[in-house]
């Protein structure tokens, strides 16, 4: 059993997290994995309420679940099991043996292949049937994935993302916090955003430009492509929840990862644009005018990329406590 649980944790650490902060820790006891948040890795300026930290941990929780399912066990999950231990986010027990289904095996196989994209996409559209699958995948986890297709709404979201990016770029606190997680070329760190995971030069997205975070900070860092081939917008989507509690944030993270893994199985990547959602006034505006009152948790672009970004993860020994 210990081998199965360790394999599940090894899968969990490949979840996406804001700035690749990897804000989680795990403890194995008996047939159970305990997932906790690591407050030292929370973005205190960007994420004062811990919303993005819990979304990241929710994505790790989904990986735990799908790994156990693929390895032949039915996962039994308890969210926020102890009110007196707010950092303990979930327990996942390896339940009764159950033969893995085809979907579990498919998603499990994508865990280490999935990558966050930080540039434009090709002009190849995502088939409507796949978009419907991704919408259903989010719904199965209790969240809602909203494809944004109307030109006025796309212009609004692109403008708000750009405005938030400009404001954050002039705020020294934001800049210092992001600098902590922007890895210079050749860095041996196993967290943060690698310098070769985004292009050196960037073109404006077509037809809508969604501002990217400036991890290079004018240092000329990047993957070295002076003329990026892909600058397409891709499909813009919002992931929302009906509530905005800690449980909802964990639900959003699980829905996010199910969507990302299912998309990855078809060669579709995701680019994240959380700047506007990190500013309470802009997030409230998007909730009211774009999401119909639902709470926006993530803003993403989905599409096909020609290049494959790099990624790094901390070794399991750093995040796992075993008896």
TrEMBL record:
<protein>
    <recommendedName>
        <fullName>Nitroreductase</fullName>
    </recommendedName>
</protein>
<dbReference type="InterPro" id="IPR000415">
    <property type="entry name" value="Nitroreductase-like"/>
</dbReference>
<dbReference type="InterPro" id="IPR050627">
    <property type="entry name" value="Nitroreductase/BluB"/>
</dbReference>
<dbReference type="GO" id="GO:0016491">
    <property type="term" value="F:oxidoreductase activity"/>
</dbReference>
